[in-house]
Amino acid sequence: METQEENVKEIKIDDILSRHVYWAVGAGLIPLPVVDIAAVTAIQLDMLKQICNFYHIDYSVESGKAWISALVTSTLSSLVARASSSAIKFIPVIGTMLGATSMAILSGASTYALGKAFINHFEGGGNFGNLEKEKVKEIYDEQIKEGKKIAKKLKEQYLKLIETPAGKEKERKAAAKIKELDEMKEKNLVSEQEYETLRKDIFKKFLGE
């Protein structure tokens, strides 16, 4: 039987995971496909950092990026490639909406699977130094299916929100701010840390957090 302390621990780590899945789904709905991947990556890096802090594991941004690249980036990139080559993108509104909703589901699912893979590893006493790629990837692949179920439910909630006039305006402003922030980064007007912090703030406001 689980102790009260174990239950509290589970609730806290579940909160970290669910909150970042929530953000990732919302990020996938903002209609800027190339930017979406960068946004989701930033959310996943923040999630890994918080998971490491929870388990008192030394966190490394470089290691986090490497693992996200190995497990997640190829999955998201393949979706964008398929969307770019699909004839449906030429159908006004429908093509854009299908691409956004697909991105939202996969963004949330990959974030969920990534979090579950690392939580499993750290729960077993592991750290960033002894990660086994094949084992972590196996858990990641197993959790994608469950992640899609969760992301689909969140997506439906978001679509109800952004289909309203107020929601559409909120979405438009978020997309414009992200584009402006990216242009500032290209001109070296903001540091990498400032860029990630400002991006996260934009998504929090868009998602009502």
Task: List descriptors.
7 helices; mainly alpha; 209 residues; single chain
> Looking at the chains present, what oligomeric state does this protein adopt?
single chain
Major sheet description: none
| Average residue pLDDT | 78
Low-confidence stretches: 82-98
Instruction: Kindly provide the radius of gyration, computed on alpha-carbon positions and rounded to a whole number of angstroms.
Output: 17 Å
- By secondary-structure content and strand pairing, the structural class works out as mainly alpha
Determine the strand fraction and express it as a percent band. Answer: under 5%
Put simply, the count of helices is 7
What report would you give on this structure?
By secondary structure, the protein is mainly alpha-helical. 81% of the residues lie in helices and 0% in strands. The chain has 7 helices and no strands. Helix 1 runs antiparallel to helix 2. The longest helix has 30 residues, at 94-123. The two termini are 35 Å apart. The model is unreliable at 82-98 (pLDDT under 50).
